[in-house]
Amino acid sequence: MDFDLNLMRVFLTVLHERSVTRAAQRLNLTQPAVSYALARLREKFDDPLFARTASGMQPTPVAFALAEPIERGMNSFAEAVNLRQRFEPTSSARRFRLSMSDIGEMVFLPALMERVHALAPRLQVEVLEIPLERLPQALKEGEVDLAIGNLAGLGSETCHAELFKERYTCMGRRGHPVLSAGLTRSQYKRLDHILVASRASAHRLLDDVLSEAGLPRRPYLTLPHFSAAAEIVRRTDLTMTLPLRAAIWFNRDDAFQIRPLPIALPMLSVTVHWHARFESDPGTAWLRRLVVDTLADPDPA
Question: How many CB atoms lie within 10 A of CB 40?
């Protein structure tokens, strides 16, 4: 039986998405093209492979049995191709895609791009914000090359390297009526908090950790990103809890008061992730080494 890479890619994408429409969008194909590929796959394997149900395209037992060997075959092919590729930073015009939250863009990206542009002036770099739950599949499919940030929970599904450990702090405006004198547990509970529920990092899990530690907070304002939060904190008595490096970045003009949390929490880990399929890809390997060299640094405090 011929091994058609495009058909196998369609098979794996429909298997993951459980939808012909979503698979077509992911693959940048038309829906009829995906349906035609499925028809060819069904003929090749003499099995329906997927059945339409109210909850989506349900794989047949044969499809489930095929998934692992096809995945292994795709990974082996990618590794073989990567071994033959060369990557020359000074001349390459390759496009790299990174996933990080807005706080990563503010704190990590300037230093990283300073080095990348100096070493590889013809590259194209695109930054995306992929939801945490979608990152393993996005890395596997090459939708993004690397993911950087507080990405707790991804370690078992991806290759990764730790950049540094980080701790959370509480930040309010300079002259804040509570933070100016310190911060106790009871004071922290009574603060009006800005909660940042970013989908691209594990920061949104902080409330669960605080509640389990007996320090629940009442969100006065909930935002999807950090970018607007600092200006709101500067103008009001609202506070926000955020990683220390981000607090230091926001406080470059000394407009804020930064206090340690009144409870010891586990340190968060900032990591860079990639998929095993691209472990030997020369370009990805070059970029992740540069990420580690640039961002892996000691505690800023």
Answer: 13
